Each structure stands twice: as structure tokens, then as C-alpha cells.
User: Fold these one by one.
Assistant:
Number 1:
Amino acid sequence: MMQRFSCPFCGPRDETEFFYGGEAGNERPEPAEETTAKQWARYLHMENNVKGPAREIWVHLTCGEFFVMERDTVTHEVHASEAFRGDRT
């Protein structure tokens, strides 16, 4: 069964129009010149993989806009979608 996600810019659309961008709040290690390989690998590859409510970054491929989606990773129920403002929400 196909899911419907709601883009804050375009409204509800089929899940095939969206791409997962990672957990919201994943802080990029800075300054770059002082970042170790281990810190960079953790930033790129390690996720909390929470079971239940999660905040995630998604992009709507049709309009190209990024947004934060709050959804339950167990039930797949979407609780909210909001424009991504780049403030590491």
C-alpha cells in the first residue's frame, strides 16, 4: 500500500515523490579542518534509528523543497510536516 506524505509547499502526494534525507538534528562536525575521520564517519553513517516518533528531513523531488516530517517509524503515521529552515531542527 502506497503512503501519502504531505509536502508543506504542495500538499499530499504519493511517497514515490519523496526522498529521505536523514534524521533532523544531526549536527555536522565543525570546524572541518579539526574533524577526525571517526567524527566524519559518525556524522555520515550513524543514525539513532528510533523506534516510534521521529523527526526526519525529507525532500519533495517534484518541487525540490526540503522539509521536516514528524512520523512514527513503527506505524508510519505522519504527525506533522513543516518547511525546513536550515536551523538544524
Number 2:
Amino acid sequence: MRSLKKTRRIQILTIAAFALAGATGLIGYGMRDSIQFFRSPSEVAMTPPPDSEVFRIGGLVEQGSLVRGQGTAITFRVTDGGASIPVVYEGVLPDLFGEGEGMVGTGRYVGDRFEATEILARHDETYMPKEVVDALKEQGSWQPGS
């Protein structure tokens, strides 16, 4: 009688482990297109990602590079001090967006420019996203309090 209970318990645990592994696999498969990686301009310049990859790029908006086109078209360059990547965006920019300010953009790297679908700017005078700070520190361009 005892071995039947033990066998049943092992069967239930085995089925539960397979169900958990299957659920984890399905969740990973379902989220594969929505996962976005962060890259600094230097990383993008060294190894450009494929045109189909959606990722986030962040850094400082280069001084003198912000050009507003017809309507809502905007072009600028984002830099981390080591490399500078041209960005094209069509839409309304956040209020605190400007030259010399930190930004994070979501989009694709097509040709030799980043085509942004979303632009995020810092939300107050002192905030800077951790990924952007790390990229700037890596390039030696980070100045605390800036």
C-alpha cells in the first residue's frame, strides 16, 4: 500500500514539473517579440543590429543636432560621448526633451539611422535612466549632478 502512494506522488510531481516547464516555454515564446534590449550609441555603432530588431537606445541629445522638419518630423543625434547615432522621429516630443538632455528611444536601426517610434525624456531636472548613466560612465562622459 505504501509503495502505491509513493508511486502516485512521484507521478504527480513529474506531471507538475512538465506542466511548469511547458507553461514557462509558452510564456517565453509569447513574449519573444515584446522584449526590448537597451543599447548605447557606441554599441550600435560597433555592431549594428538587424533592421527587424526593435530595441531601445539612450544617451544625450547632441548639442546643435536637433532639427524640426515639416509637421511633426524631427531629426537629431543621440550620443554617449563615444559615438553618435542619427535619430528620426515623427510625433510629439515630451516637454522636457531638448539638446544636451537625456533621452531613451524605442525603434529600429534602418540603414545608418535609428527610426524611433517612441521617445522618452527625463521626467524632472535630476533624473537620468540607469542604462543611460551606465553607458555615459562607460564612455567617460558622465558628470554627476549634470
Number 3:
Amino acid sequence: MAINEKMEKALNEQINKELFSAYLYQSMAAYFESKSLKGFANWLDVQASEEKIHARKIYDFINERGGRVLLKAIEEPKHDWDNVQAAFKDALAHEQFITDSINKLVDLAIELSDHATNNFLQWFVAEQVEEEATATEIVDRLELIDENVMALLRMDESLGVITLTATSEE
């Protein structure tokens, strides 16, 4: 059974949001590179890669269901932040925005009795729980260390070893 047109349109919009997420996180990574905070940049590079994987999952799903992927322009992301904490607060707020968007997709799938899409979206629901928890932990730690430069550099170092894992692609 082909995908419902309303669901197809909403999923296409989500692809755009996921690609914007990648663009935003890449912009944040560039900001941190310019500040010689390569660990924070690395973490955001990994996040950007994950967001592209998310967009591709939706892209493939639309095609599998007989729909048509229609890509739109990606909005220009923010380029500068006052400090590390401000950037990660923006990242957390953005993850919360994406969670809300995924939840609305689930609501639409339920409204349309589109069980296949609802099932597909459950992976994203679980993924957003993880994404928000990780971003919240980083924001909380940044609030704890406040202006302690040594602690900030240690945190930067610890985020420098994060890599894209196989579970990010499932």
C-alpha cells in the first residue's frame, strides 16, 4: 500500500529538519574549531553525521512505501555563540524541537491508521530520548564547571574521542 500523501509530505518536511540539524551541528563544529576546542567540534561532527543518517532513513522509507522524496532548501544555521554553554543549550533546544516533530509524525501516523509508518517512527522516538539525554548531560556538566577553564578543557578532551558507532546507523 502506497504511503498517504499527507504522511509523505510530513516525512519530507522531517527530512529537511534532519538535514538542517546536520547543518546546524556542522556550523557549531566549525565554531568550536575556530576556538581550538576540537573535542567539542568532534562531538558535533559525529552528531552531524548521525543527523544525515536519520534523514537518509526517512528518505529510504518514503521510497520503500511508493512515495516521492522532495528535497527543499536548507535554512542557514546560526554561526556564533557567546560561549560553549550557550551553544550546547541551543543544541539541546534543537533536539527538543526534533523530538516534538517526531512525536507529531507519530500522532499523524496514528490518526491515519498508518501502522507501517508508526512502527518505523518508533526507532526515532527511542533515538530522541537518547539524543536529549546526552545533550542534557553535556549542558548540566557545563553548568557545573561554569567558567573553570581546566574543567572545560578536560571536557573538550573527553568529547574528542567520541566516534560514530554502528548503533547510530541502525
Number 4:
Amino acid sequence: MPYVVKGGVWKCGFELGAPLNIRHREGYGVDALQALLHCLGIVRASIDGSPLRGKVHWGGMLSCGLPDLLNGQIQLDVADIESPSRP
């Protein structure tokens, strides 16, 4: 969860378990949302820079629905998302 640190900067941290085993990484921003998005972008970059690239997905999206820090975009790969079934 994002929180304010010295100087009014927002910070958000994360860890990823096996197989990446990434401990204590952080994203920063001018507000909570920017810190969270920066943190999620670092998660995506960590996955993309690992042997897991192209092998993991969430909801059918290889981007895992995470923001792309290099291009400044959040890609949702909507073509790969299944429509919810209606009862």
C-alpha cells in the first residue's frame, strides 16, 4: 500500500516469490496512484527481463495487465480477455 515518506514523496513496495524471488523493490510518485503505477511497472519490467517473459499471463494477457514503464502505457491486451459469461 502506498504511503508518504520524507518530503511528501509517495512510496510503494513489493516482493515477488518463486521463481523470481525479488525482495523489497519500490516505486515512487507525487501521489499514491503514481507510486502504485510505478511499482506495478517495475513488476512488469522484472517479469519481462526474466526467463518468464512470454511464459506467464494473467487473464490471458501476456502483459499481466501491468503498465509498461518504457512506453508509458497500460496495455490490457483486450483481444485476449474472455468476456464474462452471463447467467
